[in-house]
Each structure stands twice: as structure tokens, then as C-alpha cells.
Amino acid sequence: MKWLMNLWQTLNKPAKYLTLGSISLTAFVMGIIFWGGFNTALEATNTEEFCISCHSMESKPYQELQQTVHWSNHSGVRATCPDCHVPHNWGRKIARKMEASSDVWGWVFNTVNTSEKFEDKRLEMASREWARFERDDSLACKNCHNYDSMKWESMSKLAQKQMKRAAEKDQSCVDCHKGIAHTLPDMGTARAPQLIAEVGTGPSKFTNEQYYFSALTKPLFFSAKGDVEAGTLNVATKVKILESKENRVKVSISGWRKQIGAGRVIYFDFGINMLTAQLSKEAAKTEGVINGFEEKEDEMTGLKWQRVETTLWTDAEYLITEQQPLWDYARTTFRSSCSVCHTQPDEAHFDANTWPGMFQGMIAFVNMDQDTQALVQKYLQQHSSTFVKKEH
Predict the structure, then answer these.
(1) Fewer C-beta neighbours within 10 Å, C or N terminus of the chain?
(2) Where are the beta strands (DSSP E) in the chain?
(3) Helix 324-337 and helix 370-382: axis angle, to 10°?
């Protein structure tokens, strides 16, 4: 420590022979050298060569990029890694570099050094990038793609219609163009990676006799190990866990069915066409699968309804403990996606049985996967005038 103290004392001594001008000039030159070195090092990390020097980046994302229009196209303009992942604005660039320090941690501890590890983390990494693009209004895309410079007449009529609406509100590109440069996360039966990234896949262990909610549309099975499907469990449906075996759980599903046909569609409540589960014909006819209770007649339609309960098996994943995160995601999606064409109506503007028809008429104009569609429709029904008791 002695040499360090001596250095400090030397630096603190007033100059005997140097003039103020020479000190200022020296400081200026040193500043240029420092800034030049800093900027040179910064720009060195903003190259494609630097990005793919990490094996996990070269072996997966870089290979995927080479199969897309961003790599090879009729104009010969190629987008490199930093074009999309490093902001051009200096302030945002520095902030992004600080965020990227976590990548060094991942590199040191081999977080995604194998194909299997990379696929396990793909959803997490993609969701983080989508959120960043959303936060920045897809500024990285708009550095090259400018709404004002688009040649509308060269687009198809549908693309022209959609893009003009997007231009009017300066919409974020990633709202519609996920998977444009890299492979989308493999979610198996899931078609809503952002939804799952937000609400989670559910706990690893379940408590019997407790209620859970389906985060996605899921297949139902007759047994804990068999692969014969007995129907479908709809998204955001409340189920009671009765038993757990390896990667499946036995669930109890309650609701109402119409006394027509095989009566295999289970609805949320009497007289309300909000889907809970749809059983196969075989399951609906199998003794003991559906237990019936009270019956009521709908005065408006003349149809008889029966309160029922069914017990079947489903995969343990995508069952979460709370329903509110699903409604939060659905509300945000409805208010962002369904305002592209016009101001969307209030959730309580229609009743539960009117919303499906109204909502299906909007689907052609928005970019939603099937699970998200089902969730948003169910959210609208659950928060309709039927339940909130508002007058419109």
C-alpha cells in the first residue's frame, strides 16, 4: 500500500514547473486518447464478428438468421446482429451495453452452450428481446424501415390496409413480426409464448383439493399414462386437483351442459356460452366420466341445461395458482390489439353471449394465436355486462 500512498501524495502536490496551459493541454490530449480508446473498444463490440465469437451465438441464432430475408434479399441489404440488438442512439446504446453484461455471466457459466440448453432458454431470451423492442417502439426496425418511405401500391391490399393502420399510430413492428429473424420458441402445445412468459408454466408440485387455472388450452386424457385423448380443457378454466402421478394430474371440472346431442361441451355457467371443456364423443358416452346433477330450462331458448362435473387427467404443466395474471394479460392484449382499427368497446358493453360473435368479427384484423384468441374472448365474456351488471 506504500507505493499507492506515495502516488496519491505525488498527484496531490501542486505543480512547480508546469504552467496552467501545459496542464490543460495535457489533460485535453489525455481525454482524446481516453475517449478514442473507449469508443474504439465500444465499436469493437458492435460488430457481427464480436457477436458470433461466442459459440452459442454462432451455432444457433446466426445460423437461423442466414435462412431469413434479413440475410439475403433482392436489395442486397443485410441486417447484422448489432443492427437489431444495439440501439443507434448513444445513450440507449450505453444502457444496452450495461444490460448485456448479464450475457458475460451466461458465457462464463455456460448457460446456453449446448443446443438443449439454448432451447430451454429460448423463450426467456426471446421474451426479453420482444419486451425491449416493445419498450423502444421497435426503434431498431425503424432505423431501416420507415413508414413514410413505404410504397403502399406495391403491397397486397390486405398488407396495405394493415400497414397503413400501423403507420397511423406508429405501431411497434414486433407486434406482428415476431420470428422474422430467428426461430420462434418451441412451446409444444402452446401457441402463446408471450403469455406463458408472463404468467409462467405453473408449480412443479400440486396440492390435492386445491384449485388451479389452465394457462393454455390443454388435452384431457382418460388415464395417468395413456395417450388416448378424452377432450380439451379450455384456457383460463378453474379445475380442482385430485391426484398427481408423474407428469400428469387428475382434475375435477365443473360446469353446465346443454341437453342436446351427446352433451359433450361443458360451459362455465347456466345459459352462458363460455367454454370450459369439450369432451370427445367417446368420453361423453363413457359411464362415470360425466356426473349430472340438477337440470334447468333456459326461458329464452327453451333448451334444457344440466349442471355437471367431469373427472379426467391432463398434463401437469401450464396450470397456475391464480387467474388474475391471465386476465391482466388478456386486458392488455385486447386494449392494444383491438384498437388498431377503431376505439374498442368497453368490456361491459355487451353480454357474455354476444361477445363471441363480436370478437370473432375482429379476429381477421389482428395478429393473435389461437390460445390468445380464446383467452381474450373468455376475458371479455367474464367481464361483460352479464357479470358486472352495468347498463348499456
Answers:
(1) N
(2) 211-214, 218-221, 229-233, 238-245, 248-258, 265-269, 272-279, 290-297, 304-315, 319-320
(3) 100
Residue 242 CB coordination number (10 Å): 14
Beta strands at 265-269 and 272-279: parallel, antiparallel or unpaired: antiparallel
Choose among 39, 223, 327, 201: nearest CA to 335. Answer: 327
Rounded mean pLDDT of 116-136? 82
0.85 cut: is pTM over it? no
Query: What SS3 state is found at 212?
Result: strand
- Kindly report, residue by residue over 364-376, the tens digit of the pLDDT: 666 677 888 899 9
Cβ(210)–Cβ(249) under 8 Å? no
Q: Which helix (H) or strand (E) holds 170?
A: none
In angstroms, what CA-CA distances link 258 with 10, 202, 276, 304, 347? Answer: 91, 32, 13, 6, 26
Reported as a single tens digit per residue, the pLDDT across 179-200 is 888 887 764 444 577 788 788 8
d(Cα 267, Cα 104) in Å, to the nearest integer?
50
Cα-based distances in Å from 138 to 59, 143, 160, 202, 220: 26, 9, 19, 31, 39
Q: Name all domains of the chain by residue range, CATH numbers in brackets.
A: 50-175 (no CATH), 201-320 (no CATH), 324-388 (1.10.760)
> Could you tell me the three cell numbers for 114?
449446448
Separation between Cα atoms, residue 223 and residue 233, nearest integer Å: 15
Report which DSSP code applies to 40: H
Which residues, 6 or more positions from 329, have their beta carbon under 8 angstroms from its beta carbon?
195, 198, 199, 375
